[in-house]
Amino acid sequence: MRYLILLFVFLLNCQDTKSKKTKEAPNSYAATKVSNIPNKEEKSDTAFLLNDQNVMEFFLAYDKEHKENKVRITTDFGAIDIELFESTKFHRSNFIYLTKKHYFNNTQFYRVIDNFIIQGGNSDDQKTLNKRKKIGRYLLPNDHKKGYKHDRGMVSMPSSAVANPYKMASPFEFFIVQQRGGAHHLNGDYAVFGKVIAGMEVVDKIATVPTDRGDWPQKNVYIKKVDIIN
Fold this sequence. Notes:
Layout: H1 55-65, E1 70-75, E2 78-84, H2 89-100, E3 107-113, E4 117-122, H3 126-135, E5 154-157, E6 174-177, E7 191-198, H4 200-207, E8 222-228
Antiparallel strand pairs: 1-2, 1-8, 2-7, 3-4, 3-8, 4-6, 5-6, 5-7
Helix pairs in contact: 1-2
């Protein structure tokens, strides 16, 4: 069942020097293009979908109204607190937006490679695909010129698996660098937008769980919820 997810997820297009296993597949869910962005007085945005045409304008406006920059990821193994960088405004705003829409709740850390990364924000549950459809289909710029590197504990955004020469970022997923000494071969290709400020021991626990040949944990590791803490 879990391999069906290869039909629609955005995936990290990089390889660990220890592992040659990847999960590459094109995105296949559709989104409706819209031209108007809802104003803040609107009570519901259920008819509003993000897309490549409106996403930049939307998050520029969203950034001015939503300044939260710390979140707590509650997992089966404990909590991970993350600080989101103000200078990567599109990625910070995107993560806050998805958190407020409860997107990450009940998704999974679905790609785990010890001494490299843990990657989350997806699942093999149809409900996750349904949530994506209600939010929209879009990519974010690879904002890698802010001086942040893929040091241990950094939070970064994978690029889309679709034809993507500019390494545009997949907005629904993220990965945490667990590698001791950092994973600096990723610098420049992926957008670092935050860092773990508490709970690296939880990251380390998740990184050591048994996985299958596709790096998926043999026993699902759930993100129970993501909460804004500041």
